[in-house]
Amino acid sequence: MKPALTFFRRLPTRRVVLLAVLASAWACSDRKATPTSPTLSSAPASTFSLDGRVTSTETSAPVTGATVSIVDGPNAGTSTTTDVSGRFSFAALQPSGFTVEVSADNYISHSQGVTLTSNRTLNFLLRPKPAFITLTGHVTDAASGGPIASAVVYINGRYRAITDNSGYYLVGGFLDAGNNTDTTYVSAENYAADHRYIRGTVQDVRLWRLERIMAGESKIVTVAPEDTLCVNNIQDIPGIGPDYVCRSVLVVAQNDGAVTIEAVSTRDGTHPRLEVEAIGVTPCCSERIGNPTTVEVAAGTVIVVNVEMAASSNSSQSFVVNASPP
Questions:
Q1: Which of 74, 222, 227, 258 is buried most deeply by CB count within 10 Å?
Q2: Average pLDDT, integer, range 150-156
Q3: Is residue 7 part of a domain?
Q4: What's the pTM value of the predicted model, to 2 decimals?
């Protein structure tokens, strides 16, 4: 310290003051140049809500206690359960694309992708798990009542059994058509096939022998409420549109030309619903609905004539089927 003091003592007073001022300025300048860490202040990212309702495809009733889970994306692992009204709700979800999975006891699980960029509502329909059924029954000739052996019986076209020598069958399968539209399909050689809804665990079936007439002849057919569901085209698939029961007649054309088919009620002369299919005729329009209806055919063509009656009918009705010669 002595040399410094001696130096300042030797300087004139004005110079000492000037040096003091400069030293103070340098000190302030050094303090201003020292960097400071900035305080980061950023707004929180936006989050969104997702809510909805889970109901049954069968009854439209709410599915209570269903688990609703987000299985991927930044919100993966988030889950909740539906309340008594089938409702669920997620809050504060990160905006992104992800998959939502819904599961519940006795229902088939369902997944759906969603892109969340705002608050959204997403509803789910759960289909009940199909019940397994063991179906038994007896297949007989509708006219004689005798048993039909070796008839093939299907549940929903997938589960199959064959009748024994006494006409009895046993077949197991899932009622997976849903909406109470599960059916049996029964066929046997020389008989018209039978479709009907499954109601209960015992289902007896009567099959009618195929009846043939030549073009130019007539035939009386009687349609009964217990006859087969008429399943001839997409409009006749069980569960789509009104149901009809029917009887079939085969008309054989002896010559080339147009055959006109007509069916008339024996009771009041009215015309029932009539579906006609010419087997092997091309191009389109081999199957048509109309009464009467005309089909252009070649000699030997077999025309399937389905005389139909509303399935809701309470009594049998008889009709005359006329087929004009080509």
A1: 227
A2: 97
A3: no
A4: 0.70
